[in-house]
Design brief:
This protein is α/β, with parallel strands linked by helices. The protein folds into 2 domains: 121 residues, 3-Layer(aba) Sandwich (Rossmann fold), CATH 3.40.50; 108 residues, Orthogonal Bundle (Arc Repressor Mutant, subunit A). It contains 9 helices and 12 strands. The chain has a 5-stranded parallel sheet with strand order 2-1-3-4-5, with helices on both faces. It has a 4-stranded antiparallel sheet with strand order 6-7-8-9, with no helix packed on it. The protein has a 3-stranded antiparallel sheet with strand order 10-12-11. The longest helix has 16 residues. It is elongated, with a radius of gyration of 19 Å.
Length: 248
């Protein structure tokens, strides 16, 4: 397994590299955005995960994350940053990161997070899920390709991030079931400490903007007041719509 660490603090970068190498990983370092993107472009074999700082010279980690997502929607990205505000975390997730850890951090937790992301990359289908969908799935006017990470509606094609795709897959696999926010955090994110139920709500809002004809009155991803969400692939126009909270 090959890791790219993008960090301009050399002592920290080298310390991380040493610890990951002790775990058997191959590690490359980059100190800024252009260096990181060039390293990714020329990599052979390709990298399996990127560990990314946000405060970098010249090009922010947010920009790097967006650039990586333009090239590869499936490559796991873990942000490791001293920024602790919820706005920073939300911006990082909007840019396409998979997980977010704040500095200072516990090394065992970082190693665990990396292992978790790599295992999910190798085994995208969770054996604990219910009735796993085929590589292609269609509902309403939406077509989902789980292999290409693309979602197509009548008018648009959306390239989804790994977390967006896993969340949508999770909803589809649990069609009709009420899912609590904490249940979603546990099963989709692995319940990392930096993720809150508000993050779940933000990702749901993003999915609704893609799949719902009217996101303010969702027909497929319904809110269950005080609990979480329920996905309906084939809603009853006279029934399920009435159970959703407008914009929920």
């Amino acid at each position: 397994m090959r890791i790219l660490i993008v960090e301009d603090e050399i002592t920290l970068a080298e310390g991380l590299a040493f610890n990951f190498q002790q775990e058997g990983y191959q590690v490359d370092l980059a100190s800024d955005g252009p260096d990181a993107l060039e390293t990714l472009e020329q990599a052979d074999p390709e990298f399996d995960i990127v560990i990314l700082d946000l405060m970098l010279p010249g090009m922010s980690g947010y920009e790097i994350c967006r650039e990586i997502r333009e090239r590869d929607v499936q490559l796991p990205i873990l942000v490791l940053s001293a920024r602790t505000l919820s706005e920073d975390k939300a911006q990082a997730f909007d840019a396409g990161t998979d997980q977010y850890m704040t500095k200072p951090f516990a090394l065992p937790e970082l190693l665990s997070r990396v292992r978790n992301l790599l295992e999910r990359r190798q085994r995208p289908n969770d054996n604990n899920t219910v009735d796993s969908p085929d590589p292609q799935f269609q509902f309403g006017n939406v077509s989902v390709d789980f292999l290409s990470f693309q979602l197509t509606t009548d008018d648009d094609v959306h390239n989804l991030t790994r977390i967006e795709m896993e969340l949508l897959r999770y909803f589809i696999e649990h069609d009709g079931m009420v899912l609590t926010r904490h249940q979603i955090l546990r099963d989709v994110w692995g319940e990392p400490s930096e993720i809150t139920t508000r993050s779940t709500d933000n990702f749901v809002m993003r999915l609704r903007r893609m799949i719902e004809p009217n996101p303010a009155q969702p027909r497929h991803i319904l809110s269950v007041r005080g609990t979480g969400y329920r996905f309906i692939a084939n809603p009853d126009p006279a029934g399920d719509l009435l159970q959703s909270e407008s914009g929920g």
